[in-house]
Design a protein that fits this description.
Distance between the termini: 53 Å
Radius of gyration: 23 Å
Mean pLDDT: 83
Shape: flat
Strand content: 15-25%
């Protein structure tokens, strides 16, 4: 009986990542199909997702032209005059600029370790930017949910760069440290 139970649990752990991924993908496709399919006279599975991707591509293509920049500036100016909406729009614009603007090339590109909690422990974090005053802004993500965490201002001498890709660091955070490669977690100054 114990063999059957352990084998079923092991099978669940093996199948769960693929099953959850497939479930999410099918949910996204279904959402876009239900949203965009009524706009056209014919339908095939995945058409809504294809329509959404093509629409975003066209917005990006037009947005990179002079006319697109002019339209975006006009839209920004219009939303600046709408109470409540302007705050939300401005927040998401600033977040987008922090990650995708040409000035933000260094944000979240470096994995670091910083003292956290006490001087006896360090935590994995992401270099956000240099303050210009001998300090760095570092984001220390919460595990297993990296969308929340702590923003620290740390003196440069306490920031240790880690030989690890940002992708690998996110895997470590999402796995609550279970996927930490001891060789890669070695820091250097």
């Amino acid at each position: 009986m114990k063999f059957i139970k352990n084998t079923l649990i092991f099978g669940l752990f093996l199948a769960a990542p693929a099953g959850i991924t497939l479930w999410i993908i099918l949910g996204v496709i279904s959402f876009f199909d239900q949203t965009f399919a009524p706009m056209v006279p014919f339908h095939f599975p995945g058409m809504g997702l294809l329509f959404a991707v093509l629409s975003l591509f066209m917005v990006g293509l037009i947005g990179s032209t002079f006319l697109g920049k002019l339209l975006k500036n006009s839209f920004d100016s219009l939303l600046e005059h709408v109470p409540l909406v302007r705050n939300i729009y401005k927040l998401f614009t600033q977040i987008g600029d922090a990650f995708f603007s040409k000035e933000a090339k260094s944000s979240f590109k470096k994995v670091v370790k910083v003292p956290f909690g006490s001087n006896l422990s360090t935590s994995l974090g992401f270099w956000v930017r240099d303050t210009g005053e001998g300090h760095a802004i570092v984001f220390v993500p919460a595990s297993p949910n990296p969308t929340s965490g702590f923003i620290l201002e740390v003196p440069h001498e306490h920031v240790q760069e880690v030989d690890m890709s940002v992708e690998d660091a996110f895997k470590v955070v999402l796995s609550c440290g279970a996927l930490m490669d001891n060789k890669k977690s070695q820091s250097h100054k």
